[in-house]
Structures are given as C-alpha cells and as structure tokens.
Amino acid sequence: MKQHDTYIHFHELSKSWNGKTLLEQIDIELHGGDCLLITGENGSGKSTLLRIMAGLLKPDHALISTSRGTDNQHVNWHKRKKMLRQHIMYLHQTPYLFAGTVKKNLAYVKSELDINDAMQWADIETLADQQTYSLSGGEKQRVALARAWLKQPDILLLDEPTANLDQDSRQRTIELLCSLKTQGVAIVIASHDPLHFTQAVNKQMNLNNGKLCRPFPFTCEAQYK
Amino acid sequence: MESISATIIHALSLLLTGDAELWTIIGISFSISTTAILIAAGPAILCGFFLAYTEFPGRRLLISLFNTLLAVPAVVVGLTFYILLSRQGPLGDWKLLFTQTAMVLGQIALCFPLLVAMSHAAFQAVDKRAWETARTIGANPFQAFFMILREVRFGVFGALVAGYGRIIAEVGASMMLGGNILHYTRNIPTAIVLETSKGELAQGIALGMVLIVLSFILITTLHYLQGKGRVE
Fold first, then answer.
1. Angle separating helix axes B74-85 and B100-125, nearest 10 degrees
2. A50-80 confidence digits (pLDDT tens)
C-alpha cells in the first residue's frame, strides 16, 4: 500500500508545436489518492499533457516538485524526467500489450508484488495463459490496470480509459481505478466525457485553448445529477 | 565430357562419399559467411532500431542510403575493398588482401545494408506505443530495446536469413578479395566458377546442390517465421 502523503506538483508547464501553443502555464498538484479528471475537446492537448507528465514527451518548459527524494524544490522537467518515468505510469487509450501470454506481460513489470495477486485483483486469473492478441478491449484494459497495480506508481495517467468499452467493461475499469485510488495512487484521467467517472473523481479541470481551469473540489453526484 | 546424368551421379557421389576437397570448400564457405553475419548482425539491428525510433538530422537520408546500398552489386563491393586493401591502397599495410578476413569484410559490407533495411522495416512496423509502454512499466532503455526486439523477432530473423542467403552465394566480392586459393579462400561460389571454367562440372554441380538445399532451407525458414509472426 502506498503512502497517501506523496505529492507531485507540475508548475508552469508549457508546450507549443509548429508555432501553435498547445499548453500554456499549466499548474497541477496531485497528492496520493487524488483522482483528477481533465476534460476538453478532442485535440485540446489532453494527451500531450499526460505524455509530458509521464516523462515521455519533452515540454518547452516545466518545473516539478515532488515528495520523492530529498530535493522538494521546483526542478526543471529534464532533471526530473527519470523520476517521472519511474514513478508515473501512462496508459494509452488502447493499452499496448506485448506479444505472448497475459502472465508474460505482467512479468515484464518490475515489482516486488506477486503476479498472481495482481491477476486476482483485476479478475483476470482465467486469462493467465491466454495470448494477448485474443483479448477483448475490456480484458486488455484490465491487464493494463493489473500492470499498474504491480508497479504501484505514484500517479497513474489514463488517456480516455473507457473509450470503446461496453457498459460492463467500463464499470469494471472504474471499480479498479477506485481500488487503486484507495491504495494511495493518484489518478489522472483525460476524457471528453466526464459522466463516466463520477464514481472515482474528486477533482476536475478543463483544458481549453491550452489553458487549464483551476481545479475545484466537487461532489460528483451534486455536479451531475 | 560426361553426359549430364553421369555428371549429376558423379556430383552426388562426391557429396555422399565425403570428398575431402569438396567438403573443405563447403566448410570455408560456411565459416566465412557465418562469421560475417554474426559480426554484422548486432550493429545492423541496432542501426535499424535507431533509424526507426529516433529523430535526428539526416535520418531519412541515411535510410535512403542503406536502401540504395542494397542494390550495389557484390562485384562493386569487392572492387571497393580490393582498392582499399591492395598494397597501394589506404589499408594496404594491413596485408589482408586474399585472406579469409578480407572475404569476411566484403561479406559484412554486403549484408549490412540488407540487415539494416529489413530490421528497420520490422521495427518501423511495431506500434510506437510499445516503446512508451515498456518505459512506463519500468524498463530502462536497454531493457525496452530487448522488449521491442522480442516483438519483432520474426522480422529480424527474416533479415538474418535473407542476409545469410545473400552472402553465402555471392561470387564477386569473394573472388576479388579472397583470390580463390584452394583450402584457404576457395568457397562454394568461387569454386563453382573455377570448376565450370575447367570443364569439371561434377564438383560445380555438387556445390550448386549444396547452395540449392541451403536456399531451400533458408527460404522455408523465412516463410515459416513470417507466417508465425503474422499469426502473433
């Protein structure tokens, strides 16, 4: 189980591409157990933001402070890149699973936790020896979340995690996300459809014209009912 | 000259009775080509990977260059290395001309572009999410490379098979760089050329049979691997 007092703060995060500003002075602070929903139209830069946060895409500028290590000052993204890749996990809209069995995919994750426990957690024990190319979208999503459970990242970033999933798979995905959240993993979900995540989310931001509205606490039921 | 059927029977008997000279030639051929492919494989696969997964100025030019080098005839590669290694050449002091090392160098130069082009194509075909996923589940760049390599193993095996097929059967570079010296640099293709020019068809046919059987094995393996790759 993770410590709930872990935090990470992205400050002055900016990115432009071909002269167009995609992200401008973004400020995000996350604590263990947070679940932040980032909404925005298609092409608003949600995926770009997540990829920068995961250390996979270079921003023009970003400062990061974290509870990891001794240095909690705001430090340049380049110097934090390794830390970001170690402690933040990014899940693509359609998770990529390597060729081979489900068990083999979970074995790739560097973890002290047991693969069988991960499969039990994600309810994929029956799929252990199944080849990944034969899995459905929902099953792939659960395997990807089992990898996240094994890795226990500080932050789990999900890009449209319920897109193309049926009602049942969507519900199971959200339940797994809630479970990760209670374990102290901070979760960031990028989606243009906020209604799916009311059960898990406790913060919401909207990305519009490269700017992120300040986060505000909200009660999902009150917000959407 | 013997009749064709008698020549073929003679060729088979040379093969089956373990003719020492014939099997020495076969041994030299396999030894040189295997050494060349083993030396070229690692750097060429890495090169293909970097061309597929990194962005740097001149990358497209480099890809075009490797694809162009695919079409360079073996004899031109042989000529280039002959000039480099000949006594008056810039590498003449190494005294490598007409040695097995020179033949290995020539064969490396021949198979390298093919290995790069084919492994680049294989890496290029892998979903870009694979690299990001590998990194995001905790793999360092070295480990992530091997995870991706596992994804493209059939394509890369295919490249190795095709590269081996190209160099074991080439005659131009081997002839120019090896000099066709009996029991030292005479390999299957150069021996076939020599024996045929002398009118000794039996040994040429026997060696040709070896190449045909080898080609069949390599192509069948390639098709099997590509089919298996498609299924996965």
1. 130
2. 999 999 999 999 999 888 766 667 788 888 8
The model's pTM: 0.85
> What are the boundaries of each domain within chain B?
4-231
> Of all helices (H) and strands (E), which one includes residue A206?
strand A203-208
pLDDT band at A3 (very low <50, low <70, confident <90, very high): low
Phi, psi torsion values for A66, nearest 5 degrees = -150, 160
- What pLDDT was estimated at residue A49? 95
- Chain B residue numbers touching A118 (CB-CB < 8 A): none
Q: E strands, B132-217, where?
A: none
Q: Does B144 touch chain A (CB under 8 A)?
A: no
Whether residue A172 is contained in a domain is answered as: yes
CATH class (in words) of the domain with range B4-231: mainly alpha
- Residue B147, pLDDT > 60, answer yes
- Give which of B54, B137, B145, B149 to mutate to test A binding, by max A Cβ within 10 Å: B137
* Partners of A75 in beta bridges: A64
**A102 contact residues in B (CB cutoff 8 A):** none
> Own/partner pairs for B60-69, CB < 8 Å, 24+ apart?
B63/B117, B63/B120, B66/B113, B66/B116, B66/B117, B66/B120, B67/B113, B67/B117, B69/B112, B69/B113
Other beta carbons less than 10 A from residue A93's beta carbon: 16
Nearest neighbour of A86 by CB, restricted to B133, B138, B147: B138
Cβ atoms of A151 and B138 within 8 Å: the answer is: yes
**CATH number for A24:** 3.40.50.300
Q: Is the ipTM of this complex over 0.95?
A: no
B154 in contact with A at a CB cutoff of 8 Å? no
